[in-house]
Description:
The structure holds 2 protein chains of 2 kinds. By secondary structure, chain A is of the alpha+beta class. Chain A contains 18 helices and 28 strands. Chain A folds into 3 domains: about 200 residues, Aldehyde oxidase/xanthine dehydrogenase, molybdopterin binding domain (Aldehyde Oxidoreductase, domain 4), CATH 3.30.365; about 160 residues, Aldehyde oxidase/xanthine dehydrogenase, molybdopterin binding domain (Aldehyde Oxidoreductase, domain 4, 2-Layer Sandwich), CATH 3.30.365; about 300 residues, 2-Layer Sandwich (Aldehyde Oxidoreductase, domain 4), CATH 3.30.365.10. By secondary structure, chain B is of the alpha+beta class. Chain B has 2 domains: about 80 residues, Beta-grasp domain (Ubiquitin-like (UB roll), Roll), CATH 3.10.20; about 70 residues, [2Fe-2S]-binding domain (DNA polymerase, domain 1), CATH 1.10.150.120. In chain B, strands 2-1-5-3-4 form a 5-stranded mixed sheet, with helices on one face. Classes of the chains: A alpha+beta, B alpha+beta. The site of one FE2/S2 (inorganic) cluster has 12 residues of chain B, from loops.
Amino acid sequence: xxxxxxxxxxxxxxxxxxxxxxxxxxxxxxxxxxxxxxxxxxxxxxxxxxxxxxxxxxxxxxxxxxxxxxxxxxxxxxxxxxxxxxxxxxxxxxxxxxxxxxxxxxxxxxxxxxxxxxxxxxxxxxxxxxxxxxxxxxxxxxxxxxxxxxxxxxxxxxxxxxxxxxxxxxxxxxxxxxxxxxxxxxxxxxxxxxxxxxxxxxxxxxxxxxxxxxxxxxxxxxxxxxxxxxxxxxxxxxxxxxxxxxxxxxxxxxxxxxxxxxxxxxxxxxxxxxxxxxxxxxxxxxxxxxxxxxxxxxxxxxxxxxxxxxxxxxxxxxxxxxxxxxxxxxxxxxxxxxxxxxxxxxxxxxxxxxxxxxxxxxxxxxxxxxxxxxxxxxxxxxxxxxxxxxxxxxxxxxxxxxxxxxxxxxxxxxxxxxxxxxxxxxxxxxxxxxxxxxxxxxxxxxxxxxxxxxxxxxxxxxxxxxxxxxxxxxxxxxxxxxxxxxxxxxxxxxxxxxxxxxxxxxxxxxxxxxxxxxxxxxxxxxxxxxxxxxxxxxxxxxxxxxxxxxxxxxxxxxxxxxxxxxxxxxxxxxxxxxxxxxxxxxxxxxxxxxxxxxxxxxxxxxxxxxxxxxxxxxxxxxxxxxxxxxxxxxxxxxxxxxxxxxxxxxxxxxxxxxxxxxxxxxxxxxxxxxxxxxxxxxxxxxxxxxxxxxxxxxxxxxxxxxxxxxxxxxxxxxxxxxxxxxxxxxxxxxxxxx
Amino acid sequence: xxxxxxxxxxxxxxxxxxxxxxxxxxxxxxxxxxxxxxxxxxxxxxxxxxxxxxxxxxxxxxxxxxxxxxxxxxxxxxxxxxxxxxxxxxxxxxxxxxxxxxxxxxxxxxxxxxxxxxxxxxxxxxxxxxxxxxxxxxxxxxxxxxxxxxxxxx
Lengths: 738, 154
Ligand code: FES
Ligand code: FES
């Protein structure tokens, strides 16, 4: 889930819409889909209109929305289709959402496709207006076509449920019949969008697409792909980071029935996010490949990482924070914190640590590739098409026009499918063999793939004045750069800011105010690869800040809710979610003996959230009994989808608090599967209460990565109130001595 | 030859496959791709099937141990996707990515078929071997209760 800096987003209307006359059949409304990452994209106006997304109405009445939005189960496509369908007056479930790599699209349109990726919880919020405009434009053209056919004014016709009707008569025509005529009409200069009160689908959708295929096992995921002659590959990757193959005896592996090839896959340390060294076993099926792999005899070279232990990281990080030469990027400055310390009535200092974590989508990474006639075909859940192109170029020397991506659904991503090592590996294998290759990770591979969430250390210092107000706050967030460094231009940024590492602690999004603020990111690279992970840096940043706010409140003798409210920025929506969550959880009501509440909050992607955790203690065992969560995400296009994203986020947050922890010892990942790397199961789930505030905004904002970060601090805050103990590193041990 | 019965159909498989886990026999030899791979160690439940009527992890059963067994997979849960649980799953809009759902449904179907009372405790006990990374547990629980209330035992 790529988090992107949204400060500069401009919708870029000027090259937004145009219907196309290029097409052989039907009506197509193309629109430019601004990637929404920076103002730079908007500055260079293209000489010709180069749409990168399309709404198509075919002569048979089918409506297709062509976008590249990878579907890993987040319901994005349902919500996107709803935006188009609402204005086009068709059933959203009947809108087919396809990617430009789909053969259908290739056959009709060959635009210059601007590559971008799904991620950052921004899919729906950024495209909301553009998609509605496109839908409305198509509708107006269809209405105009009908009006022309009947000799009426467009105002005398109306569109509904895929047909245009004559208002005062009984003539009607199906969209399909009108599509060709509509394609020859000039596009309207402007279109009127529906008012909120007229919505039939937006804000009302409760169901997602493909449900029947998902409950019958008929939906085909990347792992299910079969092709004639296809070989299944598994890769024994260097167990110690940085090790190379020094000796390889493939004899026993090749003797395993079904095993066809053993291929050494060279490391690509020259590419950021590139793969490490490995030995691939290719066989007729996965089981044989795995058998072959266990028969491999590989001698690995030594590596400097053989000395690396994640256990020593807190000490190492602590030392790095003391080092005046450590690269510091200031993210928020106000007043002069250093001069405020001596005047403080109370001073507090605390360190908060989080370990490496793994995304673990339930479908392990799986991708197929085949080199045919000089073109590299990728088949599978390709969330970032530009990485597939980069893999083709760096591994096979193939340009973008030689790359074909056939998109399949994937069983979750959470950032794992935003890595590129597996695309490079499969490209390499496809180049080595003349058949289609399907590369599959085992769960153990997934645990050891790295490119997960970075280990971090946050050091905070706060000063309270004699009235118990926060007079100064300093924060140093120690972390490596995020996956943003894989993107072009990262190193040239004037502010040296890594927006995905400084979420919730920067000048535009920090939740609190104080006369003296000094917040900053200390970049520290251990050399252990890390990558994208759902909610990215919000997780450690919010854990540290929201824990520390409670520690400050306690020191000030204030109620944690009142203390937060007293220091919040002027953000009424943020204040409101806090108040509502407190009310929902009974913050001010008396609690039974042995029970405590803890509160934390977060904002991001234009949305706000507050979580209250209720914990109980029984004979030294602490239980998370309930999570009460209130969010404000503006307009919820598909409320059912929002609710499940919120729930999923809370479950992830519970995982951070209680389970997620990947250890590296002697340069090797220690954990291997779900027995030693636990994830939340149904039996771990507390009661979950979710309230989605609505009504005061007519725009949607992101939710997918909003709700996990406040869970761990809310739990830590409750633990302190329950036991007096402050836990400052995750995962928490909930069995207390005695 | 090893004989197994899957969704009411008999299959004969080569003795060479004796040690291959049932999961891969189903997926790669019988082309029944609805049963999913998530961990290969009996830890995630994605590969849950009914083995002589009880829920079992297909990744942990070598084909030899399945000789003469009756196996039911997601493809055999109903003819047209209209098992009461499948209907309830759609009603409650349970699946997100959907990858875990074949296994979830097979575990839930075994719970209903067992005739034990359906409540939070029995649901948790029956379902906690099935991991969902997307976080559909709340809806799964609601859907099982809905199907039970509508009398679905099938
Ligand atoms: S794949 Fe069998 S339990 Fe996970
Ligand atoms: S729906 Fe995605 S893993 Fe369960």
